[in-house]
Amino acid sequence: MIRPIHGFALVTLGISAACAKVSPAIIGGPAVNVSAVAETVPVATSNRDAADDPAIWRNPANPAASLIVGTDKKGGLYVYDLKGAQKSFLPAPGLNNVDLADGTILVIASDRSDLDEAQLFLALLDPETAVLTPAGQIAVGPGEGYGICIAKPASSADVAVFSAPKNGVIYRTIITRSAAGFAGATTALATVPSQPEGCIADPRTGTLYIGEEDDGLCAIDSDTGAKRMVAPVDNDMLVADLEGLAIAPAGDDGGYLVASSQGDNAYAVFRLPDMTPVGRFRIAAGTFGGTEETDGIAIDNRDFGPDFPGGIFIAQDGINPPAAQNFKYARWDEILGLLEAEQ
What we know:
CATH topology: Neuraminidase
Order of helices and strands: EEEEEEEEEEEEEEEEEEEEEEEEEEEH
Number of helices: 1
CATH class: Mainly Beta
Largest sheet: 5 strands, antiparallel
Strand order of the largest sheet: 1-13-14-15-16
Oligomer: single chain
């Protein structure tokens, strides 16, 4: 039995924040517009593709005091509050995707500092100070580290981390903790035929979803490695590149899976467990700017206090002139309401 965890995430390379906005070459199906209600301060790395992937930690005692961890591929890991203010920064160049597990709040990021060998970078998040402390590195296997996501078995304190390097080999690493620190045991789970990155695990059903950037969304049995394509890049729901993935769970196997349709600056929503297309949305300019060239996304559909009573959706903004890239926050309940109104 595996316990669902909230706040999944994922991503890939976009365009420098200094680039001019360019209309997508291909426009997919219709999309409703929502507006961001908050945004993070820009990452410190300017004029480069830097911000990438967010992960959400929900404060169970005070949801409005929850924290967001975001990667700067050139700099390290940022911690933000729900207003988008920076709380701390941990220098660690080369990190790409990030996810976290509750409990000790273990933050794990894919480490691309060695382009030949994928690695995991571990840190512990202190919820009182919002400070990240490095907790070691774990070797994964051949390939340039790219996408990662976490699943936590209910029967133990171990954490399963799925890695999706650029070479298409999907690895499963079981991370254990002892008095000596963290250790990992890795096996190859499956191989996909084209470059992957987006990664989200649904531990309720034992399904791992991997986004192949040019081809589509693949569902993989997290025990056997059996795989099948469940949502191809069709220039309707999904326009390449397919990037970040996130799940808003409901019940034993329901809820929604959201995918970044980076090619036309939209987000595709599918109903679980059968991946029925629900619709698409965009984060359009309002009080804050819209999002474009999104890599990583994250969702948590629980209450986060007065600003996000029906959940929060976070997206990396790849084009945020005149500033560097950042992350935009939207209300998940507002997104669902607009999509339902279109049905």
